[in-house]
Amino acid sequence: MQTILYARVSTSDQTIEHQEAQARQSGFLIDQVVADHGQSGLSTSLRERPQGRRLFDLLRAGDVLVVRWIDRLGGNYGDVCDSIREFLKRGVTIRTVINSMTFDGATTDPTQMAVRDAMIAFMAAMAQAQAEATKIAQRAGIDHARAMAQVDKYRGRKPSYGRSQFQLVQDLLAQGKGASEIAKLAGLTRQTVLRIRDAPQQAEAALAAWDL
Fold first, then answer.
1. What is the CATH number of domain 163-209?
2. How confident is the model at residue 87, as a pLDDT?
């Protein structure tokens, strides 16, 4: 009999060490850690993950399988349910770090089995819904970043001066002051003042493009 922690991380802000530490802090005495890295995706089943396959080979009757949450045991609702059923049939007890849930195949009472299976199904469905929501949010974030990059590319480089500074430079140039003196008064570099002086229409267009 052994207690195996199965951990899976798919992003840079997750670590196997953190999941192991969290399990141990929750009172689990871990004999072995089996971990997969970078195996994300709703279509990737537990058996398709390198260490997921190993997990099926390792677990025997009487073993305890510890996971942070049941979503670690599959890529989607069906996979999670199938994996849990398989382990329970083998006589493996599954325990979660979050909420300290325990699932085993000890009961033979039909009603208790139905309640257990319904809870597993509900949790698996919620896990997939959360994964899909996260995926949609990530895609939206990526699309937004790309759109903003295209906007920035179209607008060109953001001006190093504001509307008030542009107007001040224009006024001081009209008064006949030199570029070095204007730069000091406006808080700009001499090169910026010269760009405004030599191409005032382009300088003002840059402000308009950036809504400045």
1. 1.10.10
2. 93
Q: What is the pLDDT of residues 74-120, one digit of tens each?
A: 878 888 899 999 999 999 999 999 888 899 877 777 887 788 788 88
Tell me the per-residue pLDDT of 36-52, one tens digit each, with 9 for 90 and over. 886 555 667 888 888 98
Residue pair 50/71 in contact by the 8 Å Cβ criterion: no
* Torsion region of 176: left, alpha or beta (phi above 0 gives left; psi -120 to 50 gives alpha): left
Pick the closest to residue 201 from 179, 170, 172 (CA basis): 170
Please check whether residue 127 is in contact with residue 69, taking contact to mean a CB–CB distance below 8 angstroms: yes
Q: Tokens standing for 17?
A: 């060490």
- Domain 3-129 carries which CATH code? 3.40.50.1390
The number of angstroms, rounded, from the C-alpha of 125 to the middle of its chain's C-alpha atoms is: 20
Token look-up 């001081």 returns: 172
Question: What's the predicted TM-score (pTM) here?
Answer: 0.57
Task: Give the residue extent of every domain in the chain.
Answer: 3-129, 163-209
Residue 12 gets which letter from DSSP?
T
CB 90 within 8 A of CB 60: yes
Long-range contacts of range 52-60, CB-CB < 8 Å, 24 or more positions apart?
A: 52/6, 55/4, 55/6, 56/86, 58/4, 58/32, 58/34, 59/4, 59/87, 59/90, 59/92, 60/90, 60/91, 60/92
Residue 124 pLDDT class (50, 70, 90 cuts): confident
Location of structure tokens 């190093």: 160
